[in-house]
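Fresh eyes needed here. Kindly weigh in on this sequence plus structure tokens:
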Amino acid sequence: MTTLICGHAYAQTVALKGIVKDANTLQPITGASISTPDKSQSTSSGEQGEFSLSVENSVKSLEVTFVGYLSQTVETSNSSNLEVFLSPADEELEEVVVTALGISREQKSLTYSTQQLKGDELTRAKGTNLINSINGKVAGVNITSSSSGIGGSAKVVLRGNKSASGSNQVLYVVDGVPLNNNSVGSQPGNVFGGERDSGDPIAMINPEDIESMSVLKGASAAALYGSQAANGVILITTKSGKNGRTSIDFSSSAQIETPATLPKFQNNYGQGMDGQTDVNSVNSWGETMDQKASDQTKSFFNTGTNFTNSLSLSKGNEQMQTYLSYANTEAKGLLPENELSRHNINIKQNASFFDDRLKVEGGANYIQQKLENSPLTGFYFNPIVGLYLMPRNLDLSSYEQFETFDPATNKYSQNWHNLGDSETTQQNPWWIQNRNPARSDKNRLILNGSAQFKVNDWLSLQARGSMDRTHDVYDRKMYASTQSILAQKNGGYNNSNITITQKYADFIATFNTQITDKIKFTGLLGTSVTDWNTEGTSFNTGSEGLKIANVFVAQNTTTPLTTTESNNRRQLQSVFGSANFDYDGWLFLDLSARNDWSSSLAFTDSPSFFYPSVGLSANVHDKLNLPDFINFMKIRGSYAEVGNDLPAYKSYLLNSFGNYGNVDINTLTSLATLKPEITRSIEAGTEIKMFNNKVGVDFTYYKTNTRNQYFEIAASEASLFGSYAINAGDIQNEGIELLVNYDAIRNENFSWNTALNYSKNKNTIKALDDRIKEFSLTGEGRNNYASKFEVGGSFGDIYGIDFQRDDQGRILLSDQNVPLKGSEYVKVGNANPQWQMGWSNTLNYKNFGLYFLIDGKFDYDVLSITEAVMDGYGVSERSGQARDLGSVAIDGVNPAGDAVNAVDPQTWYTTVGGIGPVTTNYMYSGNAIRLREVELSYNFKIQHKFFKGVKVAATGRNLFFLYKDAPFDPETSMSTANGLSGIDIFMMPSSRSYGLSLNVNF
């Protein structure tokens, strides 16, 4: 190429032209700065990345910079048409990442493990809860989705469960300010169901507003947030207006959902018992049907839909930047009448004053959501129960007309084959969705503001404040003719009106100075206060139900049970500080300390608790004689302590008022003065870049011990109390995490990046207390299931009933050849994956893009009460196959000592299965590998003054299992609280989704 010279051969200026592109995607970069080394002449790249700059003939290079990318110096000699490829900052450890309290630091200086996700990784295949989008992408993170369908919550656990009675959920922080974590996840509930999923704090956030996400996994990373962050932190940075740019972004996605897994049914045997037809029976142990039944289950489920549209406006200059967005989500679940409508309005304003010495930021996020007929698990108000257990000879479509008019009572009655089954409380599935309707109306307002003043070159002061308020109105109507266990003859009505408010404020002084030529110091001192308040009322119609049938108002009952929520208020006050030393850009020392004063510890000997952390990292690639193929190597280690306070109102116990003015006597007392829980953590790791930075490896080892667990144990009868509160126990989590990233191919037309993440966690109950042999998260109910702690066991251990066996392990049978159940609970498995892995691939060919993610979770166990009950009712494929064969093969022995190799199918399954099964017979491996996410996209090259970019994509999520042993999706859970993990009691099937998306940038 020849240099373009303006004028004739003796001209003194040169016209340089070129284009700036992203080195990964090869897409043009708009707004990049191109300047001469002395900054005397500069320009910006246009909408297609193009630029033109006239410079003096003596200029031999240009500097090209853009926010989020590594700057680059480009030689200009003998070039008239320059092509500049900027690499994203995260290709090197020069990347600036957001850490605790919203502080930005260079990745290379961190003494602990973090992992970053960009906003587009959360929007490929949108769901109604954005946190599910990180499943399989972050090492050490285990996400369990509730089975409550659209709008449901998810349990997010970093590096294992730590607290027996407290929450194990992460803390979500948006733009440096914590969200309200007090109403996280589904209620603990019980196996009978009826407890609703109250949602989690992140589910309602618009993913299109997110710029990036940082996952702070360990105690060292999260220590500055205090007890709220004992289980780790997910930091979210939202989008802001950009200097010098006006941008309008529109995104639209449409998805359909279908059940991913459904039970398998027998189609040969009809209603009855003992091979005889009985039209009043709820079982399917009757005669062989004349005509084989068809599988009617799928006909009940809808094809779910999810339509999400988002529009954002971004504009700014050097002094002021504005970001404004609106998003709308309209979704229908797999169940009839299950619908969600959500509106998100977000505004964010940034401004600078006094030559950028004062920076002010404010934001408001308003969310309105209506959710109707969110499915419940268990036996109560669950349409899945009647659907799965309906006798196989009956025609499901005949019950779609779910009610019939009764002239004698002048009311509509439920149309169902049998409403007398008290075992499962099953009802007509369409009746539940239409005549036991539930509705939740939520209005949420998140306000935040901050001001930062730069006093001088080494001192800055910052003040921030936020309010997160959620108002939730929930009701369930139970029409007359509802199952008698659930409502009286005229029906019933439940209603709650709750407001939860969190207020947060902090003040931070930040220091930054050069101590010597080689030692740089940054630090902070701060104080914060967080205040939580819950208030409202709840109401139900009491033991007599409605007085006038189907009139759903509070006055329509003679025995109302109205509860005024106690002014449930809790406050946390804190002081904290950190000191970070940088020696010559390669050795880094971090020190931090925090002290919290918690209102829940007000009446203890330790109303406050202190915890420190220390970390050291060294970038040793320049200091050691390493092979040339190693471009970067860092080693790091840290130690940290994080405290956690008590549940509210446990340190000073009082009696309370119940209904009708009676006093509810407190039955809890503490044996000794209670104290805060404490988690001590060590972490060590290394980060390596090799082969011209094409290969990256990040390895971490960690161990945490959480002591002083809060337990409530049974009290002695002589004490006149029901239970004792004590501190005890030591739960240990030990594990490793591995991230490997490989830029396999990168050229002008084609690129391929592949990444693998692996994590393994071992959870051990190291100690409990001399006064307790075991601790149960769930009681031993009629389903023969419990989740318990025992020393030497693990969090999530499942206990249940096994067969009675002889010394040879054979099943003991009665004289009638009925298998005998054991009477003692024994450990039968553990519900937490021991290790998990995710493999992602990103391929780009010219304008085409392909992304797919395969992940798996391994070495854990799940229990299906659904399969047990289906066996007991004779509707399962397993029971039908046994009847076809004429017996069930077993290894048993009768009272006479004779070997028994076969048992009658009905005798076997009605004994081993049913409501109270032999638990060991229904345990399954949770191992599963799935195609988690796929996106096939195309970026249009459009040369137009109004359009800057158009992208269309076909997406899929949870498309199919490459391997699965369990008869249901083992990743879903009845509850995202501590109990009921790994158990399936008529859970909604998980879904697979397919969709199309459109993104347009104006």
